[in-house]
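Dear H.,

Thanks for agreeing to be a second pair of eyes. The structure we're designing against is below in token form, covering all 285 positions.
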């Protein structure tokens, strides 16, 4: 992934905590390209000594869904999931005059397919737009504006009208009131957020859950005892007060899922939140 995003930030926080319990340097390497495929392939090609890990999230499934890669969670041995991000919000610029999800949906019904939803083509946020249109009859028109930093720049400059973004990445804009979080794109509310952001269910609509997991894996040939040692480290990290404090300061949840439980969690999210919109997503490519 590119430097500067939430995956990069969370990985660096995790690496620092892992160093404490392994006694060795944990180096973060950003590998951008191929919708995360290049980074995953690098991990698969590495020596199976347990020294090369991959951190990814929901976007791991997108190239597989597109048919451009056969790599999935099951291509790796899962170490675990140390972080769950239930902070993805649908945000608008205050100049829009929309203060609630109902305002946005009313505007979209009055002028269908005119309101621009900015995101990155071929990523999970594009599928999120499809889901909102299907489940809420939102009538949003997807526009490719780029990654998270580009999305925020576009929204601030009113070059796009709606984005989805992890709350902490746009925290400054929410604090100043330049951005308004209309709805939390999760299955339940997040009590860690500094303001009460409703979920779709509060409006009698189906919750569109695009919360994120941060998953750690390693190569399929890595010996089980090394994977188990890494899992033990993640469990230690999940109890570390400094790690918990840093993660929760970004409104994220620390978890200690490891092994098969974590792998099943990831695959269930694919089945429940991405796969139902596969046909529409492929048609939009």
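And this is the sequence the design step returned. I haven't edited it by hand at all.
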């Amino acid at each position: 992934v590119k430097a500067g995003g939430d995956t990069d930030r969370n990985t660096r926080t995790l690496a620092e905590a892992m160093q404490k319990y392994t006694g060795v340097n944990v180096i973060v390497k950003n590998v951008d390209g191929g919708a995360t495929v290049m980074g995953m392939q690098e991990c698969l090609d590495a020596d199976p000594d347990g020294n090369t890990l991959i951190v990814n999230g929901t976007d791991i499934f997108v190239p597989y869904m597109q048919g451009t890669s056969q790599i999935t969670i099951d291509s790796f041995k899962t170490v675990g999931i140390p972080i769950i991000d239930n902070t993805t919000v649908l945000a608008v610029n205050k100049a829009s005059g929309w203060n609630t999800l109902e305002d946005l949906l009313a505007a979209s019904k009055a002028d269908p397919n005119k309101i621009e939803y900015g995101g990155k083509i071929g990523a999970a946020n594009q599928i999120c737009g499809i889901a909102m249109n299907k489940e809420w009859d939102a009538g949003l028109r997807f526009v490719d504006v780029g990654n998270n930093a580009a999305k925020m720049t576009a929204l601030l400059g009113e070059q796009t009208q709606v984005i989805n973004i992890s709350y902490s990445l746009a925290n400054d804009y929410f604090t100043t009131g330049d951005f308004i979080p209309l709805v939390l794109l999760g299955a339940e509310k997040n009590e860690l957020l500094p303001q009460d952001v409703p979920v779709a269910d509060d409006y009698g609509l189906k919750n569109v859950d695009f919360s994120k997991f941060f998953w750690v894996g390693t190569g399929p040939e890595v010996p089980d005892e090394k994977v188990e040692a890494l899992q033990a480290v993640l469990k230690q990290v999940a109890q570390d007060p400094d790690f918990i404090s840093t993660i929760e300061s970004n409104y994220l949840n620390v978890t200690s899922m490891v092994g098969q439980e974590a792998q099943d969690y990831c695959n269930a999210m694919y089945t429940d939140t991405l796969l139902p919109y596969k046909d529409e997503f492929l048609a939009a490519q």
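Two observations from my side: The radius of gyration is 19 Å. The first strand starts at residue 53 and ends at 56.

Warmly,
E.
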